[in-house]
Write a structure and sequence with these properties.
Radius of gyration: 25 Å
Oligomer: single chain
Order of helices and strands: HHH
Distance between the termini: 80 Å
Number of domains: 1
Helix content: over 70%
């Protein structure tokens, strides 16, 4: 195998790896956004958030 063809193969592999890395980063970013989405968590357990908000409000009200 000549040096030019091995270099071309290596460059093609680098391009493919960059594409795969970009896709993985996009997937990771999307998953992180879904996990940190507060609206989805509140919709899933509204009563727990309501009780928590009332408790925090009560505790903050006691401080005055």
């Amino acid at each position: 195998m000549s040096e030019a063809s091995s270099r071309e193969v290596l460059e093609a592999r680098i391009v493919d790896e960059r594409k795969a890395l970009a896709e993985a980063l996009c997937d990771l970013s999307q998953r992180a956004g879904e996990e940190l989405d507060l609206r989805r968590r509140v919709r899933a357990h509204p009563s727990a958030w309501l009780v928590g908000a009332l408790a925090i409000g009560f505790l903050l009200g006691l401080r005055r």
